[in-house]
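Lab meeting notes turned into a lecture example. A postdoc, R.K., suggested we walk through two folding results consecutively so the class can see how the record format repeats. The first protein's sequence and structure tokens come next.
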Amino acid sequence: EVQLVESGGGLVRPGGSLRLSCAASGFTVSSSWMYWVRQAPGKGLEWLTAMYKGGSTYYADSVKGRFTVSRDNAKNTLYLQMNSLKTEDTAMYYCSRDRAGATRGRGTQVTVSS
């Protein structure tokens, strides 16, 4: 069974950092195109990052220079390092096997507030 489990969210002050994890099972992360998406309150899903099988990474303009996607092949886990967080980054964060987020996990909440 394919499963994605996100973790690492929480409450952080503006300017702070968090690292999200996405533990995958039922498939191999390093052989897949993987994405991070988020959904802010009252808004639709927003694509944030992509990591392709070869390791190439891509970022939405809204997070470029602040967020970094990586993976640990041995742990079959995808990560999202988030730095310089802003209040507008408050959202539920999901990893997904598709850019639109249709195959996303249950998500982890990130709240950026002073």
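The second example is placed directly after the first for contrast:
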Amino acid sequence: QVQLVESGGGLVQPGGSLRLSCAASGFTFSSSWMHLIRQAPGKGLEFVSCINPDGMNTYYAGYVKGRFTISRDNTKNTLYLQMNALQAEDTALYYCARYGGPWGKGTQVTDSS
């Protein structure tokens, strides 16, 4: 069964940090481009970041560049998003997705202010 399960979300104060994880199963994770997408309350989906299969190439949306870092551990079939200097605007449901599908169910990140 192809599956992605996100974890690590929560309440965070402005300026704080969180690390999201996405555990993959049922497909060849080490050969897959992986993406992180978010959806803020009342807004549409927006791209956050992506990473190539070997982890050597990463891409970021301008609004997170310099604050967020995407990485992966292909030995653990896990994708990570380190989020620093969090802002109220980062409040959203964060999804990981394999290019071409599937998507996980998301993990919520909420500004606590």
